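Prompt: Have a read of the protein record below and flag anything odd:
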Amino acid sequence: MTQLASQLNGSSAELSAGKGVTGILVMQKETEAEDLEEVSFAYTSADSTMSMIGNRKALLQFSRSVVVSKEAFQKAKEISNSEPFAAVVRFNNLAKDEKNSSVLGNEVLAIEMGARIFNLTNNISIRFRNVKEEGFASCQSWNGKGSLPTWTDDGCTTIVDGGNITCQCSHLTFFAVLMSPPNVTISASDLSSLTTITYAGCGLSMFFLSIIFFMHFLLRRAKANVSTMILIHLTAAMFLLNLTFLTNSWVANLNNSVGCKIMAAVMHYFMLSTFTWFAVEAFHLCLQLYKAGKFTIRHYLLKVSICSW
C-alpha cells in the first residue's frame, strides 16, 4: 500500500482488488504535522462506493462511516517520515473465521497507513447506523495473520446507542462487528420460582422411588422375576439421576472446576443409564409380546445390566 501511495498523483484514489474488495486511498500533502487533519470516509451500503467526506456532520447521511483521527496521521508521518496516507479497504463476504462468527453485514474493514500505529488517545471511529440485525454487538479486530480470522476485542470499545453501533479502536488493522444471538433471560423471581419447583419435583420423585425400593427389598425380594429386576434397575438409575441433579448446585457453589467436571460426568452417566434402561424395558416388553412370555436367554439379566450400566 505504501508503494501505491507513493505513485499517487492526486490526493485520493479509488481502490479495487476484485469482486467484493473495494476501498479508497487518501493522502495529505501538508508538510507540517500541525497542519494535518482527520479524514472521514462513508458509504451507504455494502455495494455502494466509498467516499471521502469533508464535513463530519454530513456523516449522519450515511449508514457506514470511518473517521481516521489527526493523531493517527501525525504518528504515521513521524514513523514513515513521508507524506501520510490512509487507505480504507472493505471486504464483503469474507471467509468464515475459526469460530464461525456472525459478522455484521458480512463486512470487514481494513485501515492501513503504511506504519504500525497503536495506543492512540484519539481513536479511530467506525460507525454503523440504523442496524436492523438483532443480537449483541462486539467490535473486534484481527491482525491479518493465519488463513482464517482470529478476532479479539483488544484495543476496541463498543458503543451501542439504539440501532447505532460505534467502534472506538486505538490501533490499525482489520475490523468487524461480530453479532451474537440475544440471550433469552427471565427475571430473578421467576428463576427462583422455577428452581424451587424443579427441586420440589425431583425431591418428590426420589420419595416415591424410595417407596419402590422399600416394597421390593422388604416385601417382594424373594418373588422378584426378570421383569421386576429390570424395573428395579430403571428405578435405581432414575433415583441416582435425581440425586446428582439436586446436589449439582451445591457442587457448583464450591467454585471447584475439578468437582464441577466430575459432577457433570456423573450426571451425564446416570442420564444415559436411565435412557438405556428405558430402552431395555421396551425391548423386554416387545420380547414378551412376541414370544408370548415364553423365552429363555442365558444370563439375560446379566447381559442387559452390563449393556445398561
